[in-house]
């Protein structure tokens, strides 16, 4: 069976796994105050050119979003996000579970616009409404689209106008920053946002997200929030080891380049074969329209997500490439898509 | 440097690490609904002789306690625990953060008695008080003591008298069940409690706790709570692989036997040398009294926790053995304790 | 100045005030377990023909909604409501503050349809989403519209299909049940819903909402939730006295009839004068379009809410009648609307 | 029947009731931004000599404590209080329900000492513990004792040493400040604390507590918290009217003086009759020891609280005087206590 289900189907990149094996019997103090974790944090601070930022290593994306947002906000403050944002739909209400409302703005492509922020803020008049205080973006978005630098700068200006924090969920940040349409660096992300995450789980490590906080007002006592939410790993150095491996030789970006290249080959191949794309993704999430007959046959030969019926005769299907996707598999999938449609 | 700091200083037992390496490039569906995780859960259900129980794999102990307790209770219901319980003092108020009060009963040795439960319940008269609804035990306790079977059965009876759930935090369950003073099996634990955890982090795996729910009233929709709290690992099979390794040949208990043996050698040696113990532990946490002069010298040769001054002239120190502690290190520590005290 | 700002501008109906004065120096036990409160609850149980229902008296509407919903739901369960629902927009995120997401369905007139419930449920597939569990309606709605009996029965069927609770916010229930378009009795409301509130604050008493629970699965330990949320009034009998006055001779409905009659006169008069209505309300909230010139002059002679610009030349204005609105004031307002528009 | 059950058995002082009646048909804007509420707040600011303080009017004491504390603290911050504090035992875990742990220090007389604060802070070492951030006092305490000025000043110094906020629950502040043993003014309270409440419910009004915030760091956006917790009364002016009546001619203190005088007569009479007091109260809560034979007879003639058996032969009973207690009733109670014991 081919496998285009998602980008977290395999374990870890071999460099990461080797680093874990190599350090396995070392003895380190617990809870992420060990030397390796310190070095990993330093590597990231250097890479983003923010020596004064705080870097924390967490286990899952939902955890990272919920802990960061709950730490940053007062009880009556709310988040502005799109209705496709991961926190809006795929985290079982984790943000609301911390007491905060998400003001969900309708979006077709997963991108939040300054108009949406304006609209959300202007509607929330007084203390009978929640107080919008934080803008949540994901880059890449849940539909595979990305923000350009000017889009992000405009959002920053809008945030400043209203006194909003800007938080960027980077679960697929590597994919965003290494794709063809991208015009930003990770330094830009660090410059423009107040805090952001650097996703590892979907980019070659066993598990882990780095939370970067650049706005010094948001930094204080974060480790209390991490521990309180059960996210402080006893063997914290596991996160340090993995992120150190990712950031030692820019492996983080190298991995994602491969993922994106595989996605580009797949996307172009799909278009050439005459299939329709549902969105126009810049990264590794490819939503396409499969005739039901093709879907029926293909689903016995390849794992992928059948999202929902596109119309009576077609299925919307999602193909995802990963750091571990071999080029042969992409070509084989294209071959099948050709053959099964004939 | 010798290392008796804690039982989570190293990575994973080699069998566990090998299992992770061997399955690394396998492709599995995410979020713990893969085959390996299923097999691991089955192994545990068989081992505890409860085919109808639910087994969930989580990442950290604090997470496991908070998710289980918040899932089991209604907003106004409270937990009864000792004032030394892990949830009372070492989890940054994680339980209260989910809205539930802990009724903390004073205890010298970390063990909760039926008298304490009686006292807690009788004090809470009506709706002006929280409603006690769950008893929290840890076995082994935070001071290294353990419950006997008759103690646990009496607590069960008391719980039944008042309609209380009985939850057992098994972060160090393996140590409890393999020590000399123990008279219980893991089947007993499963029979007597409503839910309990099987700690992996402190017993040879990289990370992970298994949450076992035997009371069918408490099972429903637990995966929602796990996801909402950010504890549903994308690569859930990592937990499955590790727990499968632990429970395939009773490695779980074999590992802990070693830990306890090392602790017994250390404890007896310490007593022979004329040092005083603060508690009388059955497992691997040894609290002892070091003259300040010994402490000053030893702390340059060995890592351990200096808890707090015992009195003017002495320090209370905690030595912890682990699955990875070599016998040579224990003997070397005893040698130093002898030499430095002369 | 005329006053059409809202229906809670004055104190209490004289019968209510007299009852408070008459009982003022009586000595009663605290916290709502006194005889008068008991009698008031009995009056309501009789009136709705549900002797086994539970009736609790609370202080504010936001409090009532938040306490009821948080009491009924498990942490991962969510509410389905319209995006105009009071809990969605005018309660400062009180529901989310208890940890529960509101799934907001777009509505033009404030009414929730079975199609919206179907859509909300079908979107929420698994444990990565919150679990829809309770449908929230307000009757009358926030735009002055009402549900018919067949609408409510259809919603009940849809709730049963999905295992959802049906909760009705009756902050303006009296207005709904006494208006011309209504075809339901308060017995119907009690028959069809699982729980509902009977609003007093906007219908002639100083403050107070009665929460009625008919579904016995939802009743248990509600007084714990009420006390925990700070809603258990020390002098609980104040609520008993007021609701007893309201339900002794159906004063509750008599008051609302007047309110609605005043609204009907106003609405018809406005239409006759050629003004446009924004919605077609059945009860006492009349949203109309005022030319800016009229608004500028009228706002110096009458209090009302200028919602927001309707377009460049017009303002959307809200006029509200109450139990205390004299007919002369309605006629005088109509006179002004005529005069100022000439 | 005589009535010494509590100090909230009657309605309101006649001046308060008259003020409510007199303003009943006035039309005011809702939610406490009306002129009367403004005047009441000004009266309090003048009386405490803090023109820059913020004054909010709330409905119940539990509500006031929970809203204030949750507004002041970050999620991982905790409260230090005695184990007899109202928030510790009589508010159904309202503080924990907002996510915050109460560090309960054992106290015999309900008074918190600087030693207790020192002990609580020194125990909470790092991010594995909650972070103590707010000291909660009640004055008068739940046992009728009071703080002297030097006690309160010492606590303030201790708070400053550790960066703790000082919050004083004044549910019975009037009783504390008008009793014989008191050496403080309400200006002192305002000078020394960061925030405190002025209880109305137990001192002559129907319901209501004023929350005073003097520390400007704690003031921001409090109305959002009040609304979110369902505590923003639609007819907010009801609180304004009542507190205006209380503070127009120092009625607040005059009322309490009477309460205390009645308590003093009762206390001295009880001692003269040879009964034992359980505590040595300065205010209006008198805990005394009644032989069972006396209790059996007295309880048919007088309402009071039988706390719990004092020993085999005696009952601990609580007598409470109020603003409405007539001197005749006190004398009659003393007569009965004499007669029944003969």
What is the CATH C level class of the largest domain in chain A, in words? Alpha Beta
Q: How much helix is in the residues of chain A? A: 40-55%
Number of helices of chain A: 14
Radius of gyration of chain A: 20 Å
Q: Sheet with the most strands of chain A?
A: 7 strands, mixed
Number of domains of chain A: 2
Q: Which pair has the most extensive contact?
A: A-B, 51 and 51 residues
User: N- to C-terminal separation of chain A?
Assistant: 21 Å
Strand order of the largest sheet of chain A: 2-8-7-6-5-3-4
Average pLDDT metric of chain A: 96
By oligomeric state, this entry counts as homotetramer
Q: Let me know the number of strands of chain A.
A: 13
Element pattern of chain A in H and E: EHHEHEHHEHEHEHHEEHHHEEHEEEH
Query: What's the CATH topology label of the largest domain in chain A?
Result: Aspartate Aminotransferase, domain 2
Query: What share of the residues of chain A does DSSP label as strand, in percent?
Result: 15-25%
Query: What is the CATH superfamily label of the largest domain in chain A?
Result: Type I PLP-dependent aspartate aminotransferase-like (Major domain)
Query: What characteristic shape of chain A results from the CA principal axes?
Result: globular
Q: What ranges of chain A have pLDDT less than 50 throughout 5 or more consecutive residues? A: none
CATH architecture descriptor name of the largest domain in chain A? 3-Layer(aba) Sandwich
Which structural class best describes the helix and strand composition of chain A?
A: alpha/beta
């Amino acid at each position: 069976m081919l496998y285009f289900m998602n980008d977290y189907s395999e374990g870890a990149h071999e460099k990461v796994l080797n680093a874990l094996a190599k350090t396995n019997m070392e003895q380190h103090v617990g809870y992420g105050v060990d030397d390796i974790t310190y070095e990993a944090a330093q590597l990231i601070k250097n890479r983003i050119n923010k020596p004064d930022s705080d870097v924390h290593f967490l286990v899952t994306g939902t955890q990272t979003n919920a802990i960061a947002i709950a730490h940053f906000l007062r009880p009556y403050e709310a988040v502005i996000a799109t209705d496709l944002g991961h926190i809006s739909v795929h985290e079982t209400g984790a943000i609301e579970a911390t007491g905060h409302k998400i003001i969900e703005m309708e979006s077709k492509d997963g991108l939040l616009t300054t108009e949406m922020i304006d609209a959300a803020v202007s509607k929330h008049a007084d203390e009978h409404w929640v107080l919008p205080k934080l803008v949540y973006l994901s880059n890449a978005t849940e539909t595979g689209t990305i923000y350009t630098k000017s889009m992000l700068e405009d959002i920053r200006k809008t945030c400043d106008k209203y006194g909003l924090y800007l938080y960027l969920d980077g679960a697929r940040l590597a994919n965003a920053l290494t794709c063809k349409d991208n015009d930003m660096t990770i330094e830009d992300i660090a410059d423009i946002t107040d805090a952001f995450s650097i996703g590892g789980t979907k980019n070659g490590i066993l598990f882990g997200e780095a939370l970067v906080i650049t706005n010094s007002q948001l930094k204080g006592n974060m480790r209390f929030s991490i521990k309180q939410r059960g996210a402080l790993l006893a063997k914290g150095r596991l996160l340090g080891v993995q992120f150190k491996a990712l950031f030692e030789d820019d492996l983080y970006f190298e991995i994602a380049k491969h993922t994106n290249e595989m996605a580009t080959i797949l996307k172009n191949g799909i278009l050439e074969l005459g299939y329709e794309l549902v969105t126009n993704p810049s990264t590794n999430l490819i939503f396409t329209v499969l005739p039901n007959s093709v879907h029926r046959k293909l689903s016995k030969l390849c794992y992928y997500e059948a999202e929902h019926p596109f119309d009576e005769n077609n299925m919307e299907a999602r193909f995802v490439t990963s750091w571990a996707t071999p080029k042969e598999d992409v070509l084989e999938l294209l071959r099948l898509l050709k053959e099964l449609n004939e």
